[in-house]
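Narrative summary of target 7.
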Amino acid sequence: MLQDAGKTLVAAVAETLDALDLTDEDTAAKALAVHYAEVIDDARDQAWAMRWIAPGLLDVLEQLGATPAARSRLKGGKPADAPVSQLAKLRAAKRA
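Modeled conformation, tokenized:
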């Protein structure tokens, strides 16, 4: 699928990685993030790629400190509380 190179996920990931203060030890994680972005950009079914591959990309970016939650933790802040799932509510009710 043809896309404007500046609007691809690969371009956004590359820009994000360039803005981070990473070391040589981060090379493999950086390459993995770029690969995930390439797979998503090149996918015939973008919805499928975003559903199944984007979570892996997000995990890698979080490990590199490239997400707001990761930066908050690095600065000593507390990440936002996640909403309590229905399953957690049921388990808590069963224990009570």
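The chain has one domain: 5-95.
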